[in-house]
Amino acid sequence: MTTAERVAELVRGGESFLVCCHKRPDADALGSALGLRALLLRLGKDVNLYVPDDLPPNLVFLDHGEVERDLPADKRWDVTFVMDTAANALLPKGLPAEDVRGPLVVIDHHANHDDVGDIVLRETEACATGEMVMDLAEMFGLRPVPAEAATPIYAALVADTGGFRYSTTKPKVLRMGAELLEQGADPWEVAYELFEKWQPERLALLSAILDTLEVECEGRLALMTVTREMLAKTGATDDMVEGMVDYGRKLKGVEIAALVWEFPADSGEGLDTKISFRSRGDADVGVLAQRLGGGGHKSAAGTQLDIDADTAREQVRELACRVLCGE
Ligand SMILES: [Mn+2]
Q1: How many angstroms is it from 126 CA to the middle of ligand 1?
Q2: Rounded to whole angstroms, how far apart are CA atoms 90 and 150?
């Protein structure tokens, strides 16, 4: 039996399901979770969609009251799904113990991952976890997908393909996009909510970040920094940093862009440094991030270090130059 068939069997045999996604959800995590919830409801199942974190402002449009911030007490689930999650550290907080939640089924598309989950359905070729939800819908005989699944799954595909631009945008993905539009997704609404609709503080932050841009390695590496001071000065919030690293990659000739981001430490004391990587071509930033204790995809990855931003920037510079130039 394939893993997909095993998952289908668990769905057919179960009655109550808990669906969640990784910490600090992005559009693919939340969209694929909402999509799976809609499918399970169509199959007559009982579903709770649990996301304890605040939704970033650009994803609020996806939630029409489906998302539960707290779990009902005294309830048990036959199976728990965690969407788009590649690492134990990214499991949502407050996930119930195994005797309450049942087996943990991970649906994911990250090539770099640890051993999270009891049953792992992972398609590293999929452009998004949302694409895998479309394949599950097919198995359940739910294609075309129900209207209530269309917008969240469409958002998942659009976000993880950078607006159907990345090389993961296979013909199959565009056919799925077409189906989702036919089922009611509004392409401009989704694109505007996900990528535009910037507050003035965010544009001011972009301007400040661009002031920190340095190009190294004969124009192949772009380095940028966000400090707490820059956030305070511009009035921007941490979720506005999302996507800023892409600006480094826009520069002609840049193969790797890195954004070094001062971030309140997980311990609650002092500052950590998050690093986001983007790659344009052959360079594998997933491997680069892994060497710094993180992970991700070949073209988009990240890590978190408990050192200051300047030291982190130096480490990134050294490591990325070695990857690019073999020095
Ligand atoms: Mn994803």
Answers
A1: 9
A2: 26
Domain identity same for 60 and 155 = yes
CA distances from 34 to 19, 25, 59, 138, 314 (A): 8, 12, 12, 16, 40
Q: Write down the pTM of the prediction.
A: 0.91
Total of domains in the chain: 2
- Both 140 and 219 in one domain: the answer is no
Q: Does residue 166 sit in the same domain as residue 266?
A: no
Q: What is the CATH number of the domain that holds 261?
A: 3.10.310.30
The pair phi, psi for residue 83, each rounded to 5°, is -95, 140
Residue segments in the chain with a per-residue pLDDT below the cut of 50: none
Q: Say if CB 90 and CB 28 are below 8 A apart.
A: no
Instruction: Compute CA distances 314 → 216, 233, 300, 310, 317, whole Å.
Output: 12, 24, 20, 6, 5
CA 82 to ligand 1 centroid distance, Å: 12
According to the model, what pLDDT value does residue 264 have? 87
| C-alpha of residue 29 to centroid of ligand 1, in Å | 6
Instruction: Specify the CATH number for the domain of residue 171.
Output: 3.90.1640.10
Domain shared by 170 and 214, yes or no = no
Ligand 1 centroid distance, CA of 92 (Å): 16
Residue 312 structure tokens = 């982190």
The predicted structure's pLDDT at residue 327? 55
Q: Are residues 136 and 51 in the same domain?
A: yes
Beta strands in 62-162 (DSSP E): 67-68, 79-83, 104-108, 119-122
Cβ–Cβ < 8 Å for 293, 252 = no
Residue 295: per-residue pLDDT: 83
Please report the pLDDT score of residue 100 as a whole number. Answer: 97
